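Section 3.1 - Work completed
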Amino acid sequence: MDTVKTVLKDIPKFAVVGHPNKGKSSIVSTLTRQDAVSISEVSGTTTQAQGFTCSVDGVPLYELVDTPGFQRPRQVLEWLQQHVNNASQRAEAVQAFLSEQQGKENSRYKDEVELLTPIMAGAGILYVVDGSLPYTPEFEAEMSILQWTGQPRMALINPIGGEVYVEQWQAALSQFFSIVRVFDPMTANEQKKSALLSAFAELHEPWRKNIEQALERLQDQQAKLDVQSAYLVAECLSSILSEKQHIKVPTQFVESTLKKQLSKQYQQALRTYENQCWQQLQSLYALTRLQTHAHQLEADFPDLFDQSSWYLFGLDRKKLVGLSTAAGAASGAIIDAGVGGASFMAGALTGGLVSGLASLAATMKTDGLKIKGVPVAGKQLSAGPVKDPAFAFVVLGRQLDFLDVISTKNHGDRVAVAVQERGMSHRLDRLSKKQQVQLTRLLHKASKGLSQSETGQLAELIGLLRHSVG
């Protein structure tokens, strides 16, 4: 515990300040990778300074303090100017202002006290402005006050509604801040976030080592998340593709109703697996707040059993048959799994040919779910696993499309997830022929269950499929 306290004391700390409703909270949320930061379009949502620490595996890396916006900067600046004789006394004047106001229960400058307190306690300054609005002199009072604190400071231009006035802001801000950056917390990728963190090191030399270590830890964490998420998807695939459901036939029954009930039960079980996987992925990437919008995510996704949308996630018939043929042949040791192109059909004599023909037949059917058993009282009907080979690629495509969004979504962006329907065909084209065949073989085998080793192989291929997409 003592070690953690020491680390927390020494880590870089930044107060995110500025006018109300300029995206300060969104920047805090994105850079600390936390969605616990309150964000609202209503001006003045943040009323008290609150610190949020970015940590990896329990190790704190840096802290950002979300603060209220300036309310009366001109009056504060006037007070400060009346209490100094020269520039050397400016920081003392700011501290004197805080001391005077902190003793008042109903201070007019409550917001200014909240935002200046962490700065005078040693926090660096991240001053946030909106690049879509024109620069006006009214902001100079705020910037002058921050300059008076004597603390390291950087300005961030947040293009909330566009970048029309970015150049204006850059010219003005450079007069008050040593570093000026354009940063959109909603769209910034890992590279842009890392670049901004690197700029932090330029503010204050004593922070450089800590920030460099923070960047290394964050990079390592990203690699771990890639591996863990791929394994989660592989386990989900194995569960869905091997799922079976049974229903006992009662003494009195209507066959059509009974089959419909079993079909509904089976499909619901698969949807549950998928939803659980999505929730686990959201938790893995610390996006738990998205759980409150689960119905919106489902609405954006076509239903799992809506075959009219399968082309969005699966493969075309020719591609599917070719891969199934090669996978069947590879499983029967008829051909080498690494052959490609025209060699597929030439080398597939038994297992490959049968598998290919079965795939062709399956892709021409309209329903991959079959109810097994004869409806006799006291007996059982069973459903699953789905034998349609296209179904495995449909499920995989859905998982990858969802993971693409979750893994790149910034914590400051609270808009409902919109999944890009990338599909599987172009993903597979980025793999070698050998890897494509290996993936197909594993998906075929998943209906009977995968061993831990095979699940690991599937996870590795899923990782390759993910990194092949921009």
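Second construct:
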Amino acid sequence: MNAVEFQGVSKSYAIYDSPGDRLRELVSPTRVKRHRDFWALHDVSFEVHRGETFCIIGENGSGKSTLLQMVAGILHPSSGTIAVDGRVSALLELGAGFNPEFTGRDNVYLNGSILGLTTRQIDERYKDIETFAEIGDFINQPVKTYSSGMVVRLAFAVAINVDPEILLVDEALAVGDLYFRQRCMRKVHEMRTRGITILFVSHAVADVKAIGDRALWLDHGRVVELGDPDRVVARYLAAMVEKDSTYLHIKAGTEVKRQSAGPVHAPEVVETIPNVDHRYGDGRAEVLGIAVLDEQGRPLHVLDPGSNILVRISVRAKEEVPLPMVGFMLRNQLGMDFSGTNTAREGHELEPMQPGDIYTVDFYLDLPELYPASFSFSPAIADGTLLGYQMCDWIDNAVVLQMGRSEAQIYGYIHLPCRVEVNSRVKREPLLEKRIG
């Protein structure tokens, strides 16, 4: 049996214009409807396999939290069926389930008891909870005296130490500091290896791509897409860019008209796109091709750490593009955006493009020493500025190359250039002395 199953689940809330309407509807002999229905979820169906890390993404108000609360049993569906098989531990709203008047220690025992643990079982886990939370003597103080970060530390420590079979995490880690978030993510990875089922809601798409086995995209309570995290996240981000572009009114440069006998055609044009995982944009301009070359202009098949490379991108305008920006994103093998740049970021302003214009942009890069893994290049052309733009064409993972091994060991992701001195004095500017006399 699956850990979680949703079949045609919908959830509605009654919205009243005033508290009086609620009372009038309740006491009305004819039960006249005085509310309107708001559907937080509409006909949602999916299953979460046992031991799977299932991520849920979407805008605020898309129904993500409602879905998790229904898995936890806090809310019940208006229609459809939900099946949950296993002990559920939930890290939902900040401090949910904590009594603010009780101490942290009291709340540990209270939450453990609610989840079915005996006092002896909680005693056995208490030291681990206290150690992971790292809130010191505050464990014996009322929770109402805690900061938001301290509350989530204790809540997460309890959630992971009550032997859950299903763990629900709803954006709670966003309030934690970097140190605690890293510890939490390591713990999530550890729980994955132990076969614990995890439902993870987050706006941090890098985390979703790093830990998710599958991802569900919700929009206004409806399932838009379900499947591989890389594909779902890519299409979600594309939709967000398209939505944002509707709010942009690009005025700068719209009156610029270039006097020309015909379209501009770059002397060097790349017309090869090795791979297209996903492509989106409004189509006013397109990426014709991308190539990754060495210093002599020869195609590269392997990236050498510490070498100099050339990323060449050719684009063509189909309509007028007043403020063209050309760039690319470099991703690692986990699908996380590792680094990126564009012409505007590098301070190079391109001339407005007219229909038929073809530009070729060369990006010269000094590669650092990176760990040996595969990296992909995603080229793009947009219209606008760094503060606001409309995507014309974006190609996910157009070129994928393997990073070769460095002569020395790479610790972590990247080796930064470093100079070592032993027993040396830090250089300081000489102090200005005022002479008296």
